[in-house]
## 1
Amino acid sequence: MVPRNIVVLMFLGFLLRIVAGEVMGGGLNTGYEGDEGDYAKVAVRIVHGQGFTNYNGTPTTLHPPGLPLLLAMLISLTGPQNAIMRTFMSLLGSLLTPACYLLTRSLTGSQKLGWIAAAIAVVFPTWVFSSSAILTDVPAAVLVTLLAWALIEGNRRQSLSWIALAGAFWGAATLIRPACLVYAPCIALWLVLSMPCWKKSLTTVLVLMVPFACMLGPWMIRSTYVHGALVILSTQGGSELYKGNNPDATGILGIDHPHFDAALSQRYPVEQFPNEAIRSQLFQEAAVKFIRENPRRFADLCFIRFGQFWKLYSPRVPLSNNLAVLASFGLAIPFFLIQVIRAGWRRGPEMLLILIVLSQTALHMVFTSIVRYRLPIEPLVIALAIAGFRWTLSQFQYDQWNSLRWLQRWLPGT
């Protein structure tokens, strides 16, 4: 299914990610930044037999279980070594090479374009620089890409086995990054529209949901039991919603996050509200109240977050980083839009990818938004851009041939 040579590209991508992490990321053995420490410390507690708990031993569901479980398996063998964990994350990031190959080949029906996608995945700047981070974005990108590939293959082959495999990929992606849960209506809609009859559509949706529910069920049962309230994946949703939708919100996470930690989080302090589910619900109610009372401001914030999600340039990062994004993702955007316009309305694989991209965008327009939250859907954008580039090139060649025929008609001497 995957050519042997793809392993060579994958290995090259792995080496490039290691070099990028060592040279440009401050070194593989550097300390934790941001959420990295949360995932790693929970993983260490799992290895020590304390389970999913916070620093004082209280059960926690702030973060999804996928990445801590992966890290725990590694730590149980090697110990909590930062360099080894970052090397492991780079290895996971290199899986984008075969994943992009499979998706683009299925989308376009061309093995050559699949190879182009694989080569792009090896050197794509944002994927290379982000792979060594102990975060969920790149592993989620791998699984979302495989989810889209399995769905396309399942629809093309009319195979329930492939649909079940897609459900497993979807479940794993959601356990890594809860935002993937928002794909549910989009995937269901696409399956209903693309299947030949409603009975086949219903059967396909049920087959998709069985492995998905089986993967999420144990964590949901555990979290609901621990907190005494229904918790699907994480108790961080309420605070994230309020962080982005409050009277002081700017729509820029780099400003809103520190302000939330310094002031807004004390609206419901942990000491008074130790139950994470209840605290999340209170933050959610406060955010919904703000949205209802300030619909115009909410719309403004959504527009700002849309720009933060899709932006290609930021004055807060080095110029070299901006140039790398503009020269890679920036070049892909026009061809992505071409493919969206010409094929996005058809009941084909392009519609599936576009629906997933739209759902991810809509989610982060309502909640908080930064560029790295775009990573899970970037491989889908690149696959569509490759298809759009092929169509654009074929049109150019067609127009060139017509021009030669016109010249031959009017200038017989040529």
Note: The first helix runs from residue 5 to 23.
## 2
Amino acid sequence: MSKIFTTGNITEASTILANTALYNQMKSDILAHPNWEHVETITPASVIAVWDVLKCMTPGNGLEQDFYLILGRTVATGTIYCFTVDDWNPTTKAIKGYGFWQNTTGKTYDAEGRLTDTWVLNITPPSQSGVLPLSGVYASTATTIKWWVIVDDDYFCVAMNGSPNHFFHGGTYIPLTLLQTDAPIFSSQYKQTGTGNDGYITRHPAMAGLTNQKSSALAAYCGGSMTSSGQGYTEALGWLGYDNRFADPLNDNKRHANQVAINLYLNPITDQAIHGYGIGKHPPDRMRHLGSQIPSGSIVWGDTYTLEGKLWVPFLPTDMRIWNTGVAA
């Protein structure tokens, strides 16, 4: 199935209505793709938040398992939450195999390197701390939101342009180095504060089968220099520069942002002891990195790049990451 790309503007009478309309638009566009399926809508008795569980199905996603996208919104403000997870329990309404911010207490990890903790969706949204699910969070402070959505067999991405700017991106991750575990699911997004980036994979190869262990985010993205600490301090997607050591020999040694470097941390306090590195990639037709900052004012929201016969869009006019819309140029 080819990609589905949609874009448009939302204008409502209030910010709550604008955020709610964006949420419904995201859900509708993702479910328009035949490899994504709506599993359940959860409305807790307190009605603090409403949750939708969406499933990306095997074998279309290239994995031996389904994975899940969790969408949530608060009723009072329309604030949107978005994260990808390995497992979903329809009986208990609990998710497992999610990314988290920081673990400062001893925890147990299963044979796949996943935190064994679960988190139930029929409670208030996660607070973006500790071992609670690390999600993208978006709340427009304006009544008008520009947006685009790209969805494919194995991933989705949604970008918002307005006040503030934001993106969510989640899907499969293909290791290029030998890892102790599979590491198929990843997610990245702007931080909930609106600056920087967050990223994680749902399985930590360094933690597989361990008990009473501390760790930082399951696996923190890094932008190539591998000198900064993990969560959010470096480019969430892509190796910068043109060093051929990081080129893709299967793709004419091109330097794409689909190569994702990961620092594997064990110490959550100082992030000084790096256990190891991993590198993986997105499918090469998903997204790339332009390699340098785009001058302000050179392009505006809605402008596209033409690359290999397709139209590519940035999530922000001055940002270096571009996504393939699948639309012929």
Note: The longest strand covers residues 80-89.
## 3
Amino acid sequence: MAWASDIAEDAADVIAEFGEEITYTKAGGAAARTVRAVVMRKPVLPDTIGPITTGKNVAVVLVSSHPEHGIGQVKERFDTVGIRQSLATLADPDTLPDGVEPVHQDEVTMTVLKIMEQNIGFWKLLVQA
């Protein structure tokens, strides 16, 4: 269906514009890929998620389901996502006030706990360190 591929490509374009780079690793040690995603740090989670321990480092990741520009398939509890803990690590030094340097952090590896939503254009994933 042409409209389905159009939606997937449009979703990939939106994420490419507004997202940040993450590292996605498939189960079984397949080669990690760098893709763009919208990361919601410290998300407000609905009660229907299930037993998530409070105080754990969780995030919600919105990534394109386009096979070339995003992630074609996701395996809960086995795939991992590398994200930065803070957007400060992404700051362009030219846009910061005088005397302020961007923070340099390594990525934190988080496991895909749950597929919260899946549709033609996006995966909405709950991830936890």
Note: The chain has a mean pLDDT of 79.
## 4
Amino acid sequence: MAAGITSTLWKLETAEETSVSVMAHGLSRGTLYFIHTKTREKFAVNYKALGLSAGIGPPLVVPNPSQAKTSDPSWSIGNVGSYTGKKYFNRYAFPCVGAIFGANAGVGILGSILKMELTTGGVELFAFGWPLNTFAYVKVAGLGRSGLPAAGLGAQACYFWLKT
């Protein structure tokens, strides 16, 4: 890893999200479930996000909903990364602001016609404390279901808080 960046002992266990995109705007909410790889301690972080995206898909005015459940495959690409000298990543680091940067693609209703249970997939980078005081990040990949065929890149401003 680059200087000043360390890998923590926290890892994403699973995630869930519900989102909708309309005319290059996206609104999403979800929960990230973390587990400590040594102590097995767990905590969950809720989030709400609003952002912009660019991609190809249905006509601009048609809403495209998507959903991923905790039972759907999702995983972190490595452990949570942390920046040296910043706030430590654990349950006490929340609430905070942040961002999600992602790429996704899905076949939507076409996959449902073909009897596919999961019709979309994506990768995302969750940045905690972004933009002024980023203290940690986690890279996430996962599968879910979407309403319409689409592919795109996006960025969302987020608010994260501890799930109770």
Note: The CA atoms of residues 5 and 83 lie 5 Å apart.
